[in-house]
UniProtKB/TrEMBL annotation:
Belongs to the dTDP-4-dehydrorhamnose reductase family. It holds the Pfam family RmlD_sub_bind. Binds 1 Mg(2+) ion per monomer. Catalyzes the reduction of dTDP-6-deoxy-L-lyxo-4-hexulose to yield dTDP-L-rhamnose. Residues 1-291 form the RmlD-like substrate binding domain. It comes from Salinicola endophyticus. Pathway: Carbohydrate biosynthesis; dTDP-L-rhamnose biosynthesis. Its cofactor is Mg(2+). It is an enzyme of class 1 (oxidoreductase). The gene is rfbD. This is dTDP-4-dehydrorhamnose reductase.
Length: 294
């Protein structure tokens, strides 16, 4: 079996290359080897490789930049998934794709269900939703895993940024009115392996599933937990204590793209389908930080 991983150099892609290796031969072309912005080059690669499984971890994830680089975001987040859906339609190749909590309007406090009405706040979310809809229309047997607040032991992400700023600054302000569940790339890859195995065994139907950690926090709460764990592990910080991390409102930190205040995701559907209990965000943060610190 040949597994084609797109976006294999990203933080999720790196973990996928490790976790999915038991399933078969992994092919994960770099950006230099396969230009995903070119539909023609992607088509040629698909025709040459004829993969058994495609795992699409490629995406335009720069939320603010998507408001200006609209064509690039549209290509990676909407057109590429649509192209993959066309290739896999009719069987012969399985498709696993990753989506985002940004497809929802971000209002209220109740966790979003897979069946909840969508309503993206910006171009990034709109392009992610367009990609989902293309799969659901053309390749309904494909698996779509919607996740939130992704970070990892490697690469540039919130964990990396907080550790850097915590070492440089004596005081820091972090948004406290956006609520979600920090989800490490390693966990996403582990559940992806379980999902693909269940799919091949005929125990998992296609469609949308939420994949995140249990529990909820704000970015401010996430940051404070990072610093508490780092301090306990002897990581030098310029921040004196927890009081040096101030809670600020989204309105006090304007960005080009609007952020959802509510990124809570209901997890019951995936847990029932795979017979698992997703772990709490705090335990996963501790594991990810330990991996980062080596």
């Amino acid at each position: 079996m040949t597994l084609l991983i797109l976006g294999g150099s990203g933080q999720v892609g790196f973990e996928l290359r490790r976790q999915l290796a038991p399933l078969g031969e992994i092919v994960a072309p770099s950006r230099a080897e396969l230009d995903l912005m070119s539909a023609a080059k992607v088509a040629a690669a698909l025709d040459t490789l004829r993969p058994t499984v495609i795992v699409n971890a490629a995406a335009w994830t720069a939320v603010d930049a998507a408001e200006k680089e609209r064509d690039a975001a549209q290509r990676l987040n909407a057109e590429l998934p649509a192209q993959l859906a066309d290739f896999t339609a009719g069987g012969g190749c399985e498709l696993l794709h990753y989506s985002s909590d940004y497809v929802y309007p971000g209002s209220g406090e109740a966790p979003w269900q897979e069946s909840s009405a969508t309503g993206p706040l910006g171009h990034y979310g709109a392009t992610k939703l367009a990609g989902d809809e293309a799969l659901l229309t053309t390749a309904p047997e494909a698996l779509i895993l919607r996740t939130s607040w992704v970070y990892a032991a490697r690469g540039r992400n919130f964990l990396d940024t907080m550790l850097r700023l915590g070492a440089e600054r004596e005081r820091l302000g972090v948004v406290a009115d956006q609520i979600g569940a920090p989800t490490p790339a390693r966990l996403i890859a582990t559940l992806s392996l379980l999902a693909l195995r269940a799919r091949r065994a005929g125990r998992l139907a296609g469609g949308v599933y939420h994949l995140a950690t249990r529990g909820e926090t704000s970015w401010h709460g996430f940051a404070r937990e990072i610093f508490a764990l780092a301090r306990a592990r002897g990581v030098p910080l310029a921040l004196a204590d927890d009081q040096a991390v101030a809670a600020i409102a989204t309105a006090d930190y304007p960005t080009p793209a609007a952020r959802p205040l509510n990124s809570r995701l209901a997890l019951d559907k995936l847990e029932r389908a795979l017979d698992v209990r997703l772990p709490d965000w705090r335990t996963q943060l501790a594991l990810t930080l330990d991996e980062r610190l080596g």
